[in-house]
Amino acid sequence: MSLLDVQNFLARLYTDESLRREFSSAPEKIGKVNNLNEKEIAELTEILSAELNLFADSLRWKRLREVEKLLPLTKQVLAEEFEIYFHEFANQFLPATVKKHLEDAIQFAEFLQSKEKNWKKDLAKYEIAKLKFNNCDKNFIFKVFDYDIKEIFRKGVRAQKEFKQKKTFAVWLRIGKFARRFIW
Predict the structure, then answer these.
(1) Cα(101)–Cα(49) distance, rounded to whole angstroms?
(2) Which of these, 30, 31, 50, 83, could form a disulfide with 36 (CB 3.0-4.6 Å)?
(3) Taking residues 84-90, what's their average pLDDT?
(4) What is the pTM of this model?
C-alpha cells in the first residue's frame, strides 16, 4: 500500500469511531480488507492505543467548535443538547469537500431537522439557508417556515419560549453585488 493510502486509512481511523472499534477488535481482518500489509497493520495497531482515541476526540471537539461558530443561534437555543446531537451526528457523517466546516455545519443543521419538532427546527433551517446563500454562491433561496421567524428574532432566541405557529416566507436574493433578505 502506498504512503498516501496508509495516511488516508489512518485519517478514516481518526474520524470514524466504528472503524476504530472494528480495527481495535480485529486489526488483521480490517487491515487486510483495507489493503494493509502485515507491517502496516502492526504499526497502526501500536498507534491505536489511547493516543489514537485522544487525537480522534480532539478532532471531533474541533469540528464541534467550528460548527458552533457557523450556527450561533442554533447553538444558543439548544445549549447542551447541541453538543449531544453533534456527537451523534459526527459518528454518522464525515465531510468530504474542501469547505469541511461549512459542509459539517450545513449537514448538522439538516440532521437537526429530524431531531427538533418546534420553532428550533425552523431556526436551524434558517441558518442553513443563510450559510448556503453566503458561502455557496447561491443567488436565490426561498424558504417556508412553520413559525414566525421575524417574531423569533424580534423577541430573541434567548427567550427560550414557545412561539406561535405562523407560516413565514424568506427570500435571499443576489443580483451582482447587491444582496438582500426578505421575510414576510
Answers:
(1) 28
(2) 31
(3) 94
(4) 0.73
